[in-house]
Fold this protein.
Amino acid sequence: MTRLFQGIGCILLVSAEETGATLMLFFHALRDAGSSFRNPKRTLAQMKRVGVDSLPIAMAIAVFTGMVLALHTGSTLREFDFEGATATIVAFSMLKEMGPVLTAMLLAGRVGASIAAEIGTMQVDEEIDALHTLGISPIRYLVVPRLTAAIIMLPVLVVFASASGILGGAAVCQSFFDIGYKEFFETAFEGMDFSDQLEGVIKAFFFGAIVATIACRKGMTTRGGAEGVGRAITSCVVTSFVCIFICNYFVTWIMV
């Protein structure tokens, strides 16, 4: 029993230490955020990587998510002769939850893993130590452009993904439930105010910061060669997923 509590205590201490170190990395990057605008080339390259390169797959995932959501919702509500509410449910779900969460998970799996692998390889090859030797701040050179790009571009991705999901839901409603596009969009946004439309974008700012900071932290603490890089990638993706869901709950709780 003593060993069990010792093990639990060690896990809690390591988790608390890692959380503190990640937050310190985030605040140090915020402190140096102005450098990304003085030398925007690296930041623009990361913005393309995060936003433009991820846009097609984000929209494809969102379209089919909206279609599946409309199918399930409409089929269930049809039993109660209430399928007209499908539009509202699809729009609210895509704007407030499915759009930002799914897009953030895509960012974690696609871009976050890539960042962790890239910086982790640099750490293993001692390139980050070389930056220190040259008097270049790794946070300013590596972390700030990636963090800035994620914070700026994830909300943009969420807007396009949410719109794509709603369009996918509208297409299903038109095909299966005889709800025209005009009726769909009039019903979808009838009871929605500006805060409902803004909630997903606000979540995206937090999710972008979470994914980029965790990816950079895992990359910069990589040890053990190629095997260590693999562990860093896995840890980055899993930790990002957990933090996204935790953050999603608290932001939702604040905005309800």
Remarks:
- The radius of gyration is 21 Å.
- The longest helix spans residues 86-124.
- The chain has a mean pLDDT of 88.
- The chain has one domain: 40-255.
